[in-house]
Design a protein that fits this description.
Number of helices: 20
Keywords: ATP-binding, Cell cycle, Cell division, DNA damage, DNA recombination, DNA repair, DNA replication, Ligase, Magnesium, Metal-binding, Nucleotide-binding
Bound molecules: adenosine-5'-triphosphate
Low-confidence stretches: none
Organism: Methanoculleus oceani
Family: Belongs to the ATP-dependent DNA ligase family.
Helix content: 25-40%
Number of strands: 23
Cofactor: Mg(2+)
CATH superfamily of the domain at 225-424: DNA ligase/mRNA capping enzyme
InterPro entries: ATP-dep_DNA_ligase, DNA_ligae_ATP-dep_bac/arc, DNA_ligase_ATP-dep, DNA_ligase_ATP-dep_C, DNA_ligase_ATP-dep_cent, DNA_ligase_ATP-dep_CS, DNA_ligase_ATP-dep_N, DNA_ligase_N_sf
Structural class: alpha+beta
Largest sheet: 8 strands, mixed
Length: about 575
């Protein structure tokens, strides 16, 4: 048995040191002496918790109860406790200052845990008073040093500065000889998210026991995280697989869903149980996932099915106000976009490649408007990524997440590695200025664009030579209305052959020609040298300048073609971009 006093004096020493190595040494010494049935509890307490991080038990006490209990034990009123807390900044110090009662029998760690769990779990009529009474009794029976840490534990503000990896280091040092052995424990922690369980298993069964810890339904797996890059061209280099998947990046809440028959549990990014907040997602998982048991990773988003657009993250977060969940769930239905499969029918999928996981996901989850696998493309080049990315932005998404398709593209629980790379709108350096360009041609529309144009050929004005020189073909950014209206709008400018003052290279020649008349505002990603376009044509190098990934912004009917962006301006933008 370990007394709570032993723990409290170790906490005091932990607080006094600023050296991480010393912290590990102190913890290792403490843990080495704790019996198997208490070692898990000690780990939770060191982290300021009562149970594993995902367990609701940690939310059952809180500041209000702690303040009322200290008041009761001190024979004063809660307002004086609050005032002292404002002055001292800490309920632990308040308890030490205000409570004069002599300590009772020594408290064991197991006793303290039992009482705190009872308090946290109390519910129903009169439970608030019962919680305060029980906690006051516990704090009153403690020594001043124990009171400090009991009060902090209850108030949820332990703040020893010890993280979960520090505890794993200490466990490795205590039972495996060196903290260098931490990686042997980390995997078990990453897939169980329960440090107490790992500690107990290590203490009782040694490393073989820890290695046997496997994915368990209703215990969250620590989520795999994404890296970021400075340039879109770095993505393929970094991921290091010739072909990658580019998935839509949703701006909602990360949700890991555990399906166990009809029993569904949902965990947030921080691994708290959020099942109660998403009754609709629970229903969709139950109805549409065809496997008996499964663990899915994905994002809950607010999708407006009427307008076909994603609504902002804040909309979804309004559901957090729990008491209104069912009401708000009707008003803001959540859609679950699933991007990974971690477990299915008894088998862990963590060590299967991403393509295998995705293929199996598609087998057990069809497409429904409320739940479906994330949309994506598979590509091997940067332009493919950029194109899909721009299409995502147009749909109101935040960006894309690129994922390795290599053989070893396993699900790395809890890790932030180069297998997943995010690319978001806030880091795309679009040209700071738009260009006003003249429409001089168009290609015929096919498929969905039959009856209108597929893209329009745009030119800048070369003032010195009084010529129009092409810069880009543009097919994106148009609304459906703009698009279907294109033939009507451009009809008056249509001519049979290439207009006089227009310079076009044969490979860029369009299906239809237009006299320079209509001016459009265009946003683009960057200006590059190109053999296709004639803007600032250099006859020796046979290259002009082109605008990459152009997008329609609006019509500039008030501008004449000669008032369009000039070739010289395009050249200046190109130079500026190089300097940056
Ligand atoms: N297709 C997807 N694949 C992976 N994650 C996605 C996807 N779509 C949306 N996400 C979300 O994007 C998050 C990562 O990027 P983001 O920059 O939004 O989050 P963050 O909180 O700043 O970073 P992080 O979660 O990586 O610490 C993921 O945690 C996940 O919730």
């Amino acid at each position: 048995m370990v007394t709570f006093a032993t723990l409290a004096s170790c906490f005091e020493r932990l607080e006094a040191t600023s050296s991480r190595n010393e912290m590990i040494a102190l913890l290792a010494r403490l843990l080495a002496g704790v019996p198997p049935d208490e070692i898990g509890i000690v780990c939770y307490f060191v982290l300021g918790e009562i149970g594993p991080g995902y367990s609701e038990v940690n939310l059952g006490i809180g500041e209000r109860t702690a303040a009322a209990a200290i008041a009761l034990a001190a024979g004063t009123d809660p307002a004086s406790v609050e005032a002292a807390a404002r002055e001292l900044g800490d309920y632990g110090d308040v308890a030490v200052r205000l409570i004069a009662a002599p300590a009772g029998e020594p408290l064991s760690v197991a006793d303290v845990h039992r009482t705190l769990s009872r308090i946290a779990g109390a519910s129903g009529p009169g439970s608030a008073d019962r919680k305060v009474g029980l906690l006051a009794g516990l704090i009153a029976a403690a020594t001043p040093r124990e009171r400090r840490y009991l009060s902090r534990l209850a108030a949820g503000e332990m703040r020893l500065g010890v993280g979960d990896m520090t505890i794993l280091d200490a466990l490795a040092e205590a039972f495996l000889g060196s903290k260098a052995q931490r990686p042997s424990l980390e995997h078990a922690y990453n897939i169980s998210s329960d440090i107490g369980h790992v500690a107990r298993t290590l203490r009782e069964e040694g490393l073989p026991g820890v290695r046997a810890i496997s994915v368990t339904l209703h215990k969250p797996i620590r989520p795999m995280l994404t890296q970021r890059v400075a340039r879109i061209s770095e993505i393929l280099e970094r991921i290091g697989s010739p072909v990658i998947a580019v998935e839509e990046k949703y701006d909602g809440e990360r949700i890991q869903a555990h399906k166990d028959g009809d029993d569904v549990t949902l965990f947030s990014r921080r691994l708290t149980d959020v099942t109660g907040q998403y009754p609709d997602i629970v229903r969709h998982v139950r109805q549409h996932v065809t496997a008996d048991t499964a663990i899915l990773d994905g994002e809950a988003v607010a999708f407006d099915h009427e307008t076909g657009t994603y609504r902002p993250f804040q909309t979804l977060m309004r559901r957090r106000r729990k008491y209104r969940v069912s009401e708000v769930a009707g008003e803001i239905p959540a859609t679950y976009r699933v991007f990974d499969l971690l477990y299915v029918n008894g088998d862990s999928y963590l060590y299967r490649s991403y393509p295998d996981r995705r293929a199996r996901l598609e087998e057990i989850l069809g497409r429904d408007k409320h739940i479906s696998p994330a949309d994506r493309i598979v590509t091997g080049d940067t332009d493919g990524i950029t194109e899909f990315y721009l299409a995502c932005i147009e749909r109101g998404l935040e960006g894309v997440v690129c994922k390795s398709c290599a053989e070893d593209s396993f699900y790395r629980a809890g890790a932030r590695e180069w297998q997943w790379i995010k690319w978001k709108s806030d880091y795309v350096p679009d040209l700071s200025d738009t260009l006003d360009l003249v429409i001089v041609g168009a290609s015929a529309g096919r498929g969905k664009r039959a009856g209108t144009y597929g893209s329009v050929l745009c030119a800048a004005y070369n003032h010195e030579d009084d010529l129009f020189q092409t810069v880009c073909g543009m097919g994106t950014g148009f609304s459906d209305v703009d698009l279907s209206d294109l033939p009507r709008r451009l009809a008056g400018a249509r001519v049979d052959r290439q207009p006089a003052r227009l310079m076009v290279n044969p490979q860029a020649a369009p299906d239809f020609w237009f006299a320079p008349r209509h001016v459009v505002e265009v946003l683009g990603l960057e200006i590059t040298e190109s053999p296709d376009h004639t803007c600032n044509w250099d006859p020796e190098r046979r290259r002009g300048l082109a605008l990459r990934f152009p997008r329609f912004v609006r019509w500039r009917d008030e501008k004449s073609p000669e008032q369009a962006t000039t070739a010289a301006e395009v050249a200046a933008m190109f130079r500026r971009q190089r300097e940056v």
